[in-house]
Amino acid sequence: MAGGAEAVKSGTTLEHEVVGVAEALGLKAERQVKVGRRIWGAERRIDVVVKYPETNLSLGIECKYQGVGGSAEEKIPATIEDMRAWPIRGIVVFYGDGFTKNMEAYLHSTGSAMRLEDLEPWLKLYFGL
Length: 129
Prior knowledge:
By secondary structure, the chain is an alpha/beta fold.
């Protein structure tokens, strides 16, 4: 991984790590991409949008970090639902020891989420690299 997973201590550093993985594969990556508004008017942003320049195939990636137990993971089902409104396919990349086993099981069951260490092979398969 770009900076090594040990360096991930926040959602922002997780975003940087995801960008590093994508760029190391020759993909283009952009952070905090605006994609319209939510029903109450707030801007909708995708943490990272990855694009394969040869085909223009794009993928949105939401980055979720939780270092210790807490309520941040309670927002994840809403994130999975929100991805349905995106104009491109989306996944969640998560990292940290604070996720409960139940939340990890839920994330894996969606087919739209993975741990950071699983991202590189997933991107290779998705983009045909």
